[in-house]
């Protein structure tokens, strides 16, 4: 599991070349420390990438917004040539909106609402209409076919069906769309730039994550793993099937489950945090690892904790889960399953192949680190960067240097931002919302007090 665990570290947290956290040099007095505690816990309705607003309940096949009906009208639309209007427009067809992706990056735009100087820009998904999509691709000599579009969902109240399309092959689209102030932006950058108190923005992030996961999976599953023949999209791109008539294997989008756990030393009121060598300096987080075949979640928590840090875990308590579509493209969508894990042994023995370091940290130190980290400032700075990219001011995709703003005294440690489940596991424990009497995993539902999202 070493290799995969190493990949996980890249996908879970920022590598040293792209820190997105900022710190203010301020000496904490006891008072500022405690006044920050009140605002320290960031409450979300759902984790980043969960709560997708267009993933509506399954529609009946005859519903015009269902994948099969929408796919039929999509075909009719695409057959229409605006110059030779030989076919009548399809009757009662919903409106189609398309989100183009390039190398895993969704098309985005940015706008500033309000007239104040300190107004922060916010990004939006670059939905374009189906005719515009066809037009832009046509200008680059590319035909838009129904099989290249992937159904994302619908909004009944607006009578809209949403699609994604991968346009990685078309570099000429970049300046074309750039002239309209659209830009392909790394999903991780959008994740950091998203105002987590804005549920509409969080919804857009979830849509982009779902779409990216589906498109990456389409690219990874171009051939049948059974017989090696080409696969073809089915059900408007929601699954695939082998084109070999005597094989016809069905292939479904892939999810890779990962356990992520905050290991707690209840007796001494400490938590175990680890550092990957790829982390930016002073960043610490929860331990995590892929679940192996034939293993329960609790077993995976115990095995990974023992492998990485040599700590034996007893009780395992579920907290929440988070889809994580921002890992490497070879793993289109991880599902982070978050736990509190209560330690039975305390002596740390770090596996240097998997972790650079692991240490017990007191609750007080963790609280202080949470209080000084400027997550909001990092979010606003990133949002401003996305705005500049969309307006053509900022060309580069590398944002690293600007996100490592530090001055004066350094905070001794920091944690991933509120877009990551690790943040919520750590802050929930720091704010004492963890049940003090452990619950045996599986014997009881987690109480609502620990589902502090
Ligand atoms: C698909 O994957 C290949 C190899 O991993 C990569 O080179 C290519 O750019 C990807 N294509 C798209 C459309 O993402
Ligand atoms: C099609 O599938 C059959 C059965 O799995 C296999 O024997 C055959 O080689 C496949 N044909 C091609 C062209 O891949
Ligand atoms: Zn096959």
TrEMBL record:
Give the enzyme's EC designation: 3.6.1.22
Signal sequence bounds: 1-19
List, alphabetically, the CDD domains matched.
NUDIX_NADH_pyrophosphatase_Nudt13
Carries keyword Aminoacyl-tRNA synthetase? no
**Entry cofactors:** Zn(2+); Mg(2+)
What InterPro entries would the database entry show?
NAD-cap_RNA_hydrolase_NudC, NADH_PPase-like_N, NudC-like_C, Nudix_hydrolase, NUDIX_hydrolase-like_dom_sf, NUDIX_hydrolase_CS, NUDIX_hydrolase_dom, Znr_NADH_PPase
What domain of life does the native source organism fall in? Eukaryota
| Recorded GO CC terms | cytosol; peroxisome
Which catalytic reaction applies to this protein?
Answer: a 5'-end NAD(+)-phospho-ribonucleoside in mRNA + H2O = a 5'-end phospho-adenosine-phospho-ribonucleoside in mRNA + beta-nicotinamide D-ribonucleotide + 2 H(+)
Swiss-Prot/TrEMBL keywords:
Hydrolase, Magnesium, Metal-binding, NAD, Signal
Which segments constitute the Nudix hydrolase domain?
Answer: 253-383
What Pfam families does the annotation carry?
Answer: NUDIX, NUDIX-like, Zn_ribbon_NUD
What GO biological process terms are annotated to this protein in UniProt? NAD+ catabolic process; NADP+ catabolic process
Give the molecular function GO annotations. Answer: metal ion binding; NADH pyrophosphatase activity
Keyword Hydrolase attributed: yes
Q: Which family, according to UniProt?
A: Belongs to the Nudix hydrolase family. NudC subfamily.
Q: What is this protein called?
A: NAD(+) diphosphatase
Q: Which organism is it from?
A: Gossypium hirsutum (Upland cotton)
This protein's gene is called: LOC107943216
């Amino acid at each position: 599991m070493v290799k995969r665990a190493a990949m996980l570290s890249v996908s879970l947290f920022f590598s040293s070349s792209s820190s997105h956290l900022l710190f203010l040099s301020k000496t904490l007095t006891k008072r500022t420390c405690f006044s920050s505690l009140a605002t320290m816990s960031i409450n979300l309705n759902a984790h980043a990438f969960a709560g997708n607003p267009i993933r509506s309940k399954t529609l009946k096949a005859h519903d015009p917004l269902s994948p099969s009906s929408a796919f039929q009208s999509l075909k009719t639309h695409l057959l229409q040539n605006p110059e030779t209007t030989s076919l009548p427009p399809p009757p009662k067809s919903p409106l189609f909106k398309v989100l183009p992706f390039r190398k895993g990056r969704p098309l985005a735009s940015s706008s500033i609402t309000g007239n104040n100087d300190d107004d922060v820009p916010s990004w939006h998904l670059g939905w374009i209409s189906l005719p515009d999509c066809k037009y832009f691709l046509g200008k680059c000599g590319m035909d838009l076919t129904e099989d290249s579009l992937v159904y994302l969902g619908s909004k009944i109240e607006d009578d809209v069906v949403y699609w994604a399309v991968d346009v990685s092959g078309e570099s000429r689209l970049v300046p074309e769309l750039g002239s309209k102030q659209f830009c392909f932006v790394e999903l991780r950058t959008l994740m950091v730039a998203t105002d987590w108190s804005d549920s509409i923005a969080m919804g857009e992030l979830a849509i982009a994550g779902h779409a990216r996961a589906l498109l990456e999976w389409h690219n990874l599953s171009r051939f049948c793993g059974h017989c090696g023949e080409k696969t073809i999209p089915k059900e408007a791109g929601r699954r695939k099937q082998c084109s070999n008539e005597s094989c016809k294997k069905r292939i479904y989008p892939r999810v890779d489950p990962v356990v992520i756990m905050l290991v707690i030393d209840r007796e001494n009121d400490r938590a175990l945090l680890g550092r990957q060598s790829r982390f930016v300096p002073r960043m610490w987080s929860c331990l995590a690892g892929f679940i192996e075949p034939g293993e329960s979640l609790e077993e995976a928590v115990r095995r990974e904790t023992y492998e990485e840090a040599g700590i034996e875990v007893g009780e395992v308590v579920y907290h929440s889960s988070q889809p994580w579509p921002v890992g490497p493209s070879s793993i289109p969508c991880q599902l982070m399953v978050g736990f509190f894990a209560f330690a039975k042994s305390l002596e740390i023995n770090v596996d240097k192949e998997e972790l650079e370091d692991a240490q017990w940290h007191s609750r007080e130190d963790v609280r202080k680190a949470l209080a000084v980290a400027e997550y909001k400032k990092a979010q606003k700075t990133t949002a401003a960067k996305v705005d500049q990219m969309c307006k053509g001011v900022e060309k580069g995709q590398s944002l690293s240097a600007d996100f490592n703003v530090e001055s004066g005294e350094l905070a001794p440690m920091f944690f991933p931002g509120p877009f990551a489940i690790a943040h919520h596991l750590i802050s929930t424990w720091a704010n004492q919302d963890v049940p003090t009497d452990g619950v045996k995993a599986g014997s009881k539902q987690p109480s609502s007090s620990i589902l502090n999202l």
